[in-house]
Request: fold
Amino acid sequence: MNDELRVVIDAGHGGNDPGAIGNNFQEKDLTLEISKYMYDKFRDAGIPVTLIRNTDETISPTERVKRVLESYGNDPNVVVISNHMNSGDPNSETAVGAEVIYALRNDEVLAKNILDELANEGQIIRKHYQRTLSSNPSKDYYFILRDTGNTTPVLIEYGFISNKEDINRVAGNLENYADAVVRAVLKTYNRNGVQNDDNIYTIKSGDSLWSIANKYGTNVSELKALNNMQNNMLTIGQTLKIPDNSSNEIYIVRPGDNLWEIARRFNTTVQTLRAINNISSDNLSIGQKLIIPK
Ligand SMILES: [Zn+2]
Reply:
C-alpha cells in the first residue's frame, strides 16, 4: 500500500486489433494519440504516470492487465485510464458523445468529474455507468475493470467513430480532452490519493485568483482569507478551498453555444436557465456568464 496517487494510461486496442473503424479513423490510432498527450500532461503536473503502449502494438487482454498491475502494484491509489472510441449501428448516425464506465468496486465521483470536464471542453455528454457480465452480475463486463485488482479504473469512450461529426470533433480536440481528464483526476484525488471534496479546486495552467473567484461566485479576498494566502501566487496542481456558498456553477458562453444545448449538457431546461439568468431571448453573446443550477 502506497498512499501516493499514480496513473496508468491504457491506449485501447493496437496492432492487429484496430478497434472500431469508420469515417477514415481507426480507434487504435486515436486512443494512442490521446494517451500520449495525457501522459505528458500528468508528467507536467508531477504525477507518476505510465503508458501501457506507446506504439502500434498488439497486446492481449492478459498482457494488458499484467502491465497495468506491474506498473505501480495492485492498489486503489493507482488510477487506470483506459481510452476508447465508441461505435454504434453503422446505419445510424444518431449515437453521439462521451461515456465513462466505472468499476463495481468504485464510486461514481471520478467518472462524473471526467464527463463534467469533457463537457467544459465542448463535448456532448451521454452518461457514466457500471456494466455487469450477463453470466455473472457480480462482475464487471469489461476486463480492464474486472481483472485489474484493487486499482481504480475508468473506461472512457470519447465519442462515436460511427458518427462523422462526433469523431471529427473528438479528433480535433484530443489534446483538450486529454487536459480535461487530467483536470478531472486532479480534482477527484489529491496527491496522496485521498478523494477531494466538492469544495476543493485544483489549479491548472492559465488560472488566476480572479478567474477562480468568478467561476465560483466568490471574490479574491474571500478566497485568500479562506486559504490563508499572503499573495496572489498560484502554482499548477495546488489546491484551493472554495467557499460553501457557491452552490451554483457559472458557465461562460462559447462560440456556437445555444441555450438548448447548454441546458441539455447540464441536465437542466431552457426555461430554468432563462429564469435563473433573467434572460428572455434566445440570443447569447460569447463570453456571457450563465448561472447553471446544481
Ligand atoms: Zn474500444
